[in-house]
Amino acid sequence: MEFKQTVGRHRSSQYFLPWRPVERKKVQVILEAGRLASRAVNTAFSKAIVAYRDSLTAAEREKLKTPFSATLIDTAPVYIFWFYDMDARRVAVEERKWPTVASGALVDIGALGPPHGWSHRYVQHVVLPEVLMPGLDAGPQRGGNADAALAMAQGLLAAIDEGLAVNLAPFDEAGAKEVLRTPDTWEPVTAMFVGYPADSWEAAGQEPRPPFESMFFDQRASQPFERDQRVTQRLKDSGLIQRPAPVPWRAKEVRAVSRMLNLAEDEE
Ligand SMILES: Cc1cc2nc3c(=O)[nH]c(=O)nc-3n(C[C@H](O)[C@H](O)[C@H](O)COP(=O)(O)O)c2cc1C
Could you state, in order of their start, the residue ranges of all structural domains in the chain? Predict the structure, then answer.
């Protein structure tokens, strides 16, 4: 699939075929894409655990639910729980493991070098003491992490590219500790629910977004980034920008899918 189409086909799917398993190779593709996401100091801040709806007991599934993710946990065949490893920087500094910045790997592979002032000496005497070590004595700090979210985002697009339906929703942290045996140093990012769509891939249509100019700015926060309609048209032609929600048949589709999946239906 073309990249622009993959971005355009993204939907936060609400309806999965519970009986259709997801090929393990496709789950691996999601993780491989996440593994290659950009990450600060080349350290693996992102961790993920794959679980299968049918390999967990009903009681275990209950423990993982939040009000937002209950139906997704009941219907999606695969869950990928994404975490931020709050201890990854300390481990990288202490162990100086390849290929972290702390190990000098970026100098060895020629990613960073003299043109940027980098050398092994620079890593030992500047990067470690001034960038990597400060704050470590405070211990693991909660608060989220861009790297972990980036890895999840790339995995999300890879799932779409593999023809899968996907959605994100929070999970119960204490339940995850019990069921998935996660270390205390892992902070939840979000759960990713993966499966084959029970509704059409287009689902409701592309969900609305706030106006482009209210989100993006040109050189000053006071100066909106003006959209060029020729570019927007090209993106419509390439499939990045698609038919907005709701598509006219959506209510009927939701009723039919809810009946098929035995889910609660609209009273009307
Ligand atoms: C961190 C995060 C948490 C989310 N939590 C939920 C959720 O609990 N339930 C849900 O249905 N969608 C959830 N979503 C999906 C958003 O609701 C969705 O991205 C937004 O409505 C835009 O729709 P789209 O993704 O289909 O374009 C979440 C997305 C993110 C990034």
Answer: 3-205
**pLDDT (average), residues 120-143:** 91
**What separation in Å is there between the alpha carbon of 161 and the centre of ligand 1?**
18
* 71 CB near ligand 1 (under 6 Å): no
- Residue of the CA atom closest to atom 19 of ligand 1: 12
Give yes or no for residue 168 CB within 6 A of ligand 1. Answer: yes
**pLDDT tens digit string along 6-50?**
999 999 999 999 999 999 999 999 999 999 999 988 899 999 999
Q: Looking at the chain, list the stretches that DSSP marks H as alpha helix, in order from N- to C-terminal side.
A: 3-8, 24-35, 58-64, 70-75, 88-95, 105-108, 120-122, 146-161, 173-180, 212-215, 229-238, 250-260
Q: Which CATH number fits domain 3-205: 1.10.1040.10, 3.40.109.10, 3.10.105.10, 3.40.50.1460?
A: 3.40.109.10
**Can you give the pLDDT at residue 266?**
60
Q: What percent of the chain has pLDDT over 70?
A: 99
CA of 131 to the centre of ligand 1 (A): 34
Contact 170 CB / ligand 1 (< 6 Å) = yes
Describe the crossing of helices 146-161 and 24-35 by its angle, rounded to 10 degrees.
140
